[in-house]
Amino acid sequence: MPERIEAFRYFVRVNKIHNDKFVEFDFSINEPDLAVELILPVEQFKEFCARYEVEGLSDEDIARIDLEKAQWRTGKAFRDADASQQA
Q: Which of 6, 38, 39, 58 is the most exposed place for a label (fewest CB within 10 A)?
């Protein structure tokens, strides 16, 4: 596993726990809204979090990220950008 880089902040957001055996989570470095989805066995997830000294996302961060994702999925982000350029 790669070493932790001190200059970076590491974030996790647990999405689901499967059968008390696997943790499905989003992992991001420095930018909580740009993440990869990973799945690890519970014990390895705990080791992963300890190794990278991860931070959980705040409720506000989760709400903002979920809203942004929804806007991108529905195309609202593109419509808003177009509207601001036309103004």
A: 6
Residue spans of beta strands (DSSP E) within the chain: 10-18, 22-29, 35-41, 55-56
CB-CB contact of 15 with 24 (8 Å): yes
pTM for this prediction: 0.74
3-class secondary-structure state, position 25: strand
First to last CA, the chain: 49
Host domain of residue 67: 58-87
In the predicted structure, residue 84 carries a pLDDT above the cut 60: no
Helical pair 59-74 and 76-86, crossing angle rounded to 10 deg: 80
Shared-domain flag, residues 35 and 25: yes
